[in-house]
């Protein structure tokens, strides 16, 4: 039998496209008429029939057996041939005209029964039902979870804006781990962002508190034994202190090592969490110095801090420091090419050189690799 001639598997492939894109399940669930699927069959030409009659008969037998008495598909026939080869009646089209035939062709009857059960369960919740119809295969993957998914959805929807922690969820059979595991789907059902923080804030639930860690000079007005604090960001913002000089460091061990300025503080910026620092109102009148890694992300963080504190100065983030430590350069695994608008002209020139690999491939100088004697000279 020629490999060029159509087979039952070719028809299954065509029908499977409608299954994979979800359109068959959507139409079935909403009661739409079956969208008839027709495939023209490639078969032997009239000249090939006499060459290998056995192959032609085998091809026809396969198509006939595959239809399973029209349980999977029906066949239409056409007469080909003529004066030289005789007239022969051969299959010309395969037609799938019902849902039951499509399920039989694909062997998915059990999956359809499971989807019908899911659809029945969610039908009383229109937003959930709409999502299931829009994403039938994702819904089918969760078929055993839907009773708990609905309970979770109902609790979260009812507690929008409550300011409660997710840990307080009391839906039947649901715990925090379940809600977190299915956060992406629940976010889609509830119309909120799927990120961990966006999910909670979008629902008006309470997020874990943000902490800012800082070392302070003894003359700043805090109780004498305290030299270091880790405080909730909103509480630290309300603290009545007025440092005159503040150093913000990206790296923890560097934060612990640098000397605390007189009448000032050292704050751990923790990379892109520097927004927590920038929101502290008592930094507006302080002389703020930022020291981050000498790479594209270090400048991006500096740019971000200046959105809050425009007068922030940078230290040890210059061309001289970079070139003096050539033997300590590393590689920036994922450099940024973001447009930064808050850098000084000198900083921006160096940033552009780093983005453009002027010094080598993705060069970076981490702040903890800078010689400490150089640090002491610049910071004092």
Strand content: 5-15%
Number of domains: 3
Distance between the termini: 88 Å
Please provide the ordered H/E string of secondary-structure elements.
HHEHHEEHHHHHHHHEEHEHEHEHEHEHEH
Count of separate DSSP helical elements: 19
Instruction: Give the quaternary arrangement of the chains.
Output: single chain
Mean pLDDT: 92
Poorly predicted runs: none
Q: Please describe the biggest sheet, giving its number of strands, its sense, and whether it closes into a barrel.
A: 6 strands, mixed
Gross morphology is: elongated
> In terms of structural class, how would the helical and strand content be classed?
alpha/beta
Helix content: 40-55%
Please give the radius of gyration in angstroms.
Answer: 34 Å
**Within the largest sheet, what's the order of strands?**
5-4-7-6-8-9
The tally of strands reads 11
Key terms for this structure?
single chain; alpha/beta; 3 domains; 6-stranded mixed beta sheet; 3-stranded antiparallel beta sheet; 19 helices; 11 strands; 15% strand
Overview of the structural elements:
The N and C termini lie far apart (88 Å). The chain is an alpha/beta fold and 380 residues long. The radius of gyration is 34 Å and the shape is elongated. The strands form three sheets. A six-stranded mixed beta sheet has the order 5-4-7-6-8-9. Strands 1-3-2 form a three-stranded antiparallel beta sheet. The protein has a two-stranded antiparallel ribbon with strand order 10-11. 43% of the residues lie in helices and 15% in strands. The model has no long low-confidence stretch (mean pLDDT 92). It has three domains: 100 residues, no CATH class; 94 residues, no CATH class; 169 residues. The relative contact order is 0.06.
């Amino acid at each position: 039998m020629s490999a060029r001639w159509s087979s039952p598997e070719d028809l299954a492939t065509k029908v499977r496209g409608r299954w994979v894109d979800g359109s068959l399940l959507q139409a079935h669930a909403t009661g739409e008429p079956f969208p008839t699927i027709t495939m023209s069959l490639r078969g032997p030409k009239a000249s090939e029939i006499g060459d290998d009659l056995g192959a032609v008969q085998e091809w026809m037998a396969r198509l006939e057996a595959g239809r399973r008495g029209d349980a999977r598909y029906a066949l239409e026939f056409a007469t080909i041939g003529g004066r030289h080869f005789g007239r022969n009646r051969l299959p010309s089209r395969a037609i799938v005209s019902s849902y039951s035939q499509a399920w039989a062709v694909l062997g998915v009857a059990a999956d359809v029964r499971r989807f019908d059960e899911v659809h029945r369960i969610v039908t009383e919740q229109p937003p959930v039902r709409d999502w299931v119809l829009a994403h039938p295969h994702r819904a089918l993957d969760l078929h055993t979870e839907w009773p708990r998914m609905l309970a979770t959805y109902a609790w979260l929807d009812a507690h929008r804006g409550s300011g409660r922690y997710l840990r307080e969820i009391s839906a039947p059979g649901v715990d925090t781990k379940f809600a977190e595991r299915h956060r992406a789907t629940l976010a889609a059902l509830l119309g909120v962002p799927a990120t961990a923080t966006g999910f909670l804030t979008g629902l008006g639930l309470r997020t874990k508190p943000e902490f800012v860690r800082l070392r302070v000079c003894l003359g700043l007005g805090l109780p004498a034994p305290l030299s270091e604090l880790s405080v909730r960001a909103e509480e630290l913002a309300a603290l009545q202190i007025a440092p005159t000089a503040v150093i913000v460091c990206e790296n923890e061990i560097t934060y612990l090592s640098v000397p605390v300025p007189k009448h000032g503080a050292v704050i751990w910026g923790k990379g892109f969490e520097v927004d927590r620092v920038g929101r502290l109102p008592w930094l507006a009148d302080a002389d703020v110095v930022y020291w981050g890694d000498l790479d594209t992300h270090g400048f991006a963080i500096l740019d971000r801090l200046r959105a809050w504190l425009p007068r922030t100065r940078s230290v040890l983030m210059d061309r001289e420091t970079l070139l003096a430590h050539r033997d300590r350069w590393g590689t920036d695994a994922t450099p940024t090419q973001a447009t930064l608008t808050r850098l000084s002209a000198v900083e921006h020139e160096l940033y552009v050189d780093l983005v453009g690999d002027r010094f080598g491939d993705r060069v970076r100088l981490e702040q903890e690799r800078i010689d400490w004697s150089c640090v002491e000279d610049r910071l004092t």
